[in-house]
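Person: Show me a sequence?

Helper:
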Amino acid sequence: MGDDVIGQALSATIGEPQRVLAHPRGSNQSATGGSVMAESILAEIHAAKKPFYVYILSKPDGTPFYVGAGKGKRILAHEKQARGNGKSHKLSTIRKIWRDGGEVVRAFDSWHDTEITAFDREIELIDFVGRRDIKTGPLTNETGGGERGDFGPDVVRRRTIAIRASRKTPEYQKWLSSFREKQLHRFSTEEARRLHSEINKQWLKDNPELAEEIFRKQRESMRTPEMRSQCSDREKKKSSPEHSRLLSERMKKWTLEHPELAEVYKKKRAAAFQNDRIREASRARINKWLRNPEKFLLAKAKRAKTLQDPEFRKAHSARMLEWNRSNPDKVAAATKARIEMMQERKSLRAKCLDLVSKYHLQLAVPHPRSGIAAWQSCYSDITELLKKETTSCRQ
């Protein structure tokens, strides 16, 4: 009964399809009994006066399961994908129809002169029939439409608008929240993360050329002026006080709503910082950056200018006072950790200066006010230098 209601409502909204086409996997039958060959479908497409069309794929009982827009062989592409190893709800639906001995029913809804008008019609149909992933209907479409076809300024704009509009619906937000929660649970164990890492590493080994091509395209896209400008604007937005406030509010709300996941995330983050490999890599990046005088001085001047801004100082002071009042235990723990770090830095600095003076080493030492990472790096350099000199003396 539900399928009849969907069919009646769809017919009332979109009218009678211009032609219903059915084509089973590997069929070479003529257009009898509802089956036509791919050549007949392409002949009809080529005979059409308008290049773009909107189409509907349905189950044998008439229930629509996919709405699309395109040109050329687009209407046949989904069944071609289903013959491969791809995974999606749409492809699973097509394969199930074949297993049951049925045929995919194709219907041309409308023809269009431009891709944009075809996209508009596609979005309208998807919105009316409803999508399965957000529990509004039977369609297996994963977006609200308008995301395929040739790339042009207007098309890209329409796609972006359609995708963003579909993601603002309460149904999508509910689904996204559930999906993220499942993903966090999925990778909350060490074994799951290890298996995921092994799968990724194996894929990189099996597909080195494809992986290199993907990485190359990513590097090239990041080097374009437009992308660099976008990244710069995004970072500026992230550094604004308003963004920090909103992010803090969202994190507090999420922590209250998901206390168990928040605890898992907290333990995972703490464990990551205890990992020697991660700490060494982080320390190496910091030391490399500190040894670049131009970048260091530029960043230092920029930070000094920011700290001299009265508005920034006032807002920062207010935030710090509020946080200190709200988190007395964390303040005490942070103070204790800072005192211990200062004592360790003082001891490390004394060791470095003592070794340099004792062995008359020609080595540049960090500034007295440098952080503990700089003095740790200096101590490592001194140790390596002394090992080399000891080895050369023995030889």
Summary: The first helix runs from residue 2 to 14. The chain is about 70% helix and 5% strand. Residues 2-172 form one domain.
